[in-house]
Amino acid sequence: MPRALPGLLTRVRPPRTQGGRVALALAVVYLAWGSAYLAVHVALQSFPPLLLSGLRNLIAGIGLFFVAGRRASVWPTLVQTRNAGIVGTMLVGFSSGLLAFGMRTVGTGTAAVMVATVPLFATIISAIAGRPIAKGEWVAVALGLAGIFILNRGDASSSSTSGSIVILCAALFWAGGAHLASRLALPADLFLSTALQIGLGGAISTLIAVAGGERVAALGFGPLFAFVYLMLVATMAAYVAYGFLIRHTSPIVASSCMYVNPIVAVALGALTLGEPVTGSTLVATGVILVSVALSFWFDRRRAV
């Protein structure tokens, strides 16, 4: 990492008002993660899936660690570091890696819609953890499952079912990692906590990928550019922005990217890759987003 980059990042000034910072963080998360599906699609032309996830998160984590080291006043304990590694393994090692693996056979828009089921899995995990779940929340879960069924019925690709199952597993691991992040003690500094999570999670993914025989194929300009974009924008910038939203807004606001990301991904997939937007895709997208909206609505009612 160039020496000038940490200094440049520490000199970047966020908006002065809290509302401006929240708006900036939302814009970064919406655009970065909505476009990440297209970037993963391009990067997979040269990078195998688990190595792609591992390397971009490992390098991004190292970069953020240099930034955090210049500003952190309190260093994490061994327990906090261990917890960051656990959460990072769930969010980065398993979730991001499985998403890239599934996207070898599933379109960008379809993958984004399926990842929107994270709040539904979060509801199920909360129920297992002992939180009472209202009947309406189970209706939201049922709607989400119905949307997934419609989505797969409308996909004529012979390999879409296995890819969809893998992506659903990625969504499950993301929900599990987010649940652990709310329960475990993590470093107080946002940059340091994010750096440890994605860095340790990326390191574990990279080791598993290398041990499993994954190697980078002939590297073209497009996949390389997509990899750099994923590392700098979809990982470093987006994870910091998402961490800020978790700490300074309600869970509903922080998770609102689940509404917007599929729209961005479907639009980019149709415009740049020519992915078809069928009637089944539109119906399934609407059903899944309604189910997610219901989950958020019941969660807000519970908090009132």
UniProtKB/TrEMBL annotation:
The chain crosses the membrane at residues 21-44, 50-69, 81-103, 109-129, 136-154, 160-178, 190-212, 224-245, 252-271, 277-298. It comes from the Bacteria. Its main location: membrane. Pfam families: EamA. It is a multi-pass membrane protein. It is found in: Membrane. GO terms for cellular component: membrane. Keywords: Membrane, Transmembrane, Transmembrane helix. Belongs to the EamA transporter family. This is EamA family transporter. It comes from Trinickia soli.
